[in-house]
Write a structure and sequence with these properties.
By secondary structure, the protein is of the alpha+beta class. It is built from 11 helices and 10 strands.
């Protein structure tokens, strides 16, 4: 096995690293201030004009459409490239995402058909439209198969009723991918369908923002007799659960990459500080506890990166049976950054608690990673269940 990146990906990584250093890090003080001041609102953490400037710069240096198919104006560089890019971007706490925000890209690419390609997929792939996916419900978080939102046939239309919670980007999206039950008797095995619902559709309301820990501000979304046509069924009726799970797998890999970027930033701060800071007549670097924090953090990062890149390579090779791998990288990545961020804050002592450094922001932002896209406990359960049913993998 060759663990070195191809030359084109090394060049891409250098380009993104420069973009993060020169364009994203200068915005961090403003991001920290905006996050502290927004209170119980959904005020953006990046000034809208600054975000437009970032999009222009990213497009100018060739960072648009990393994983978009070439026929739709993208670069089609694959999942490993995406993993490399996300890690580099998250060495900055500025919450910038290159358009289009995956992983809805993958679900739309696989499921859009006919006029949907022109109306939804192409403008989304070009960064001209934004999307959100509505899955989680008050009684269906870790177990999406338990969702209750219904879509019923009435007078030649699909009529959606129900409630979703913790839906990221819902107010900013031009359209939502809405998961709903179309056959309660079948449930997740043929009874859940995905629908494309335009922002502003009658009966669709987004009145609630959840003020959560860290940078996220997800929404509550309500459906009151929302009518959509057959042309707005994404994929096949009843077969929405499988593509949704694949979409979740992509996001789980992305969380591992974000965790790696944050962890690298922590290490960039920890190592020079340990060498420079003197207590009781000796640098912190000579204290065994500090040495172990740094050694353990580095090893844990390296292990997460290897299993994450392995997953990315499996996806790029066209393998389809990688749900366990996605659970594993999300679990390990999200728990790794929690430990690394905590060590970094402990190393800096009082300064680590302040907003003068990005560490407390990282610690709060990454805490959500252990819950979003499935909590750690559910992933452990899934991995164990898969192994107990199927045995150890051959490779």
């Amino acid at each position: 096995m060759d663990f070195t990146l191809p030359e084109e990906l090394r060049m891409l990584r250098e380009t993104v690293a420069r973009f993060a250093r020169e364009e994203l890090r200068p915005l961090e003080k403003d991001v920290i201030r905006r996050e502290a001041e927004r209170g119980l609102t959904d005020a953006p953490l990046i000034d809208p004009e600054a975000e437009k400037a970032l999009n222009r710069k990213a497009k100018e240096i060739g960072l648009y459409g990393i994983d978009v198919p070439e026929e739709y104006g993208g670069q089609n560089l694959g999942m490993l490239a995406k993993a490399v890019v996300i890690e580099e971007l998250k060495t900055s706490i500025t919450p910038y995402v290159l358009p289009p925000d995956s992983p809805n890209l993958y679900m739309l690419r696989e499921q859009c058909k006919g006029e949907q390609i022109r109306k939804y997929f192409i403008p989304y792939a070009k960064g001209e439209k934004k999307s959100a996916i509505a899955i989680t419900e008050p009684g269906a978080g870790s177990d999406p198969a338990a969702m209750k939102t219904r879509a019923e046939r009435r007078n030649g239309k699909w009529v959606i009723n129900g409630q979703k919670i913790f839906i990221s980007n819902a107010r900013k999206a031009d359209f939502l991918i809405v998961m709903a039950v179309t056959d309660p008797a079948k449930g997740s095995r043929g009874g859940i369908t995905a629908f494309l619902v335009d922002q502003g559709t009658k009966g669709l309301s987004i009145p609630t923002v959840f003020n959560t820990i860290g940078e996220h501000a997800p929404y509550g979304v309500f459906f009151d007799d929302v009518e959509v046509s057959d042309d707005q069924v994404l994929g096949e009726v009843g077969n929405g659960f499988g593509p949704m799970q694949n979409r979740l797998g992509v996001r789980r890999m992305e969380i591992a990459c974000r965790s790696l970027g944050f962890a690298r930033r922590c290490m960039e701060l920890m190592i020079p500080y340990a060498n420079e800071r003197v207590t009781f007549g000796k640098p912190l670097a000579e204290r065994q506890a500090v040495q172990w924090w740094i050694a353990d953090s580095f090893q844990e990062m390296e292990m997460v990166r290897l299993i994450t890149w392995r997953l990315a390579c499996k996806i790029d090779k066209g393998e389809t049976n990688w749900r366990r791998d996605a659970a594993m990288v999300k679990l390990q990545g999200s728990e790794m950054i929690a430990r690394v961020a905590d060590r970094a804050m402990q190393l800096f002592g009082g300064m680590g608690m302040t907003k003068d450094l990005p560490l407390e922001y990282i610690a709060r932002a990454c805490r959500a990673y252990r819950v979003y896209e499935g909590p750690s406990e559910v992933h452990r359960w899934f991995i164990a269940r898969d192994l107990l049913r199927n045995g150890m993998p051959a490779d």
